[in-house]
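Design request, tokens follow.
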């Protein structure tokens, strides 16, 4: 009795890239359940086909990271692997936060894809050594003092307001916070305005000090 093939949904807006991925996967014993060109199509295909792995491009229409988050929430049993050209820290960390178990670069050897996907299904993380090093550097880097939750100021904030302020307090920009929380920069600013009003302070730095030092 042979093992069943690894079933994969491919999502990338470039037809040629999808064809190369399909060829590599099928040559390695995988079964391509569906091909998609947008994030919306990817989510729908995964919900319908329930593959073992969703292989997602990041910068396809609709945003691959958003698709990863939706798939992770709806079908946690489907492993998510990003296949991208991006080496940006923001894309890497946002993908992992969204539920991805792997982050592979398109300039890597396509013939290694089937092995990488099976490794993910076996509980391993799939990504180049250079990106693993980057993750270790991020965790080892000193961070600003965290806010204290058990204060009178903290109790006035909603969980989302707390999350926004803590991320801003760690040095992230409004746009970075918006990207990580999958909301618009305007929504982040609305949360900040609400916090300033609740804490009766005029600016973010005063709010940060109150939340850290009260």
């Amino acid at each position: 009795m042979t093992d069943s093939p690894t079933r994969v949904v491919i999502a990338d807006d470039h037809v040629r890239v999808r064809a190369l991925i399909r060829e590599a996967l099928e040559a390695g014993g995988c079964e391509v359940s569906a091909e998609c060109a947008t994030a919306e199509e990817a989510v729908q295909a995964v919900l319908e086909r329930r593959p073992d792995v969703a292989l997602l491009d990041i910068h396809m229409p609709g945003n691959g990271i958003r698709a990863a988050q939706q798939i992770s929430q709806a079908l946690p049993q489907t492993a998510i692997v990003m296949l991208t050209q991006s080496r940006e820290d923001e894309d890497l960390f946002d993908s992992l936060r969204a539920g991805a178990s792997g982050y592979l670069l398109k300039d890597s050897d396509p013939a290694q894809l089937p092995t990488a996907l099976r490794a993910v299904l076996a509980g391993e993380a799939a990504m180049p050594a250079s990106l693993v090093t980057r993750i270790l550097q991020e965790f080892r880097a000193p961070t600003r003092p965290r806010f204290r939750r058990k204060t009178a100021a903290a109790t006035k904030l909603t969980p989302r307001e707390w999350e926004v302020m803590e991320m801003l307090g760690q040095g992230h920009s409004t746009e970075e916070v918006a990207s990580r929380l999958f909301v618009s920069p305007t929504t982040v600013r609305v949360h900040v305005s609400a916090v300033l009003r609740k804490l009766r302070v005029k600016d973010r730095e005063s709010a940060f000090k109150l939340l850290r030092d009260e």
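Comment from the thread starter after seeing the answer: thanks! The mean pLDDT is 88.
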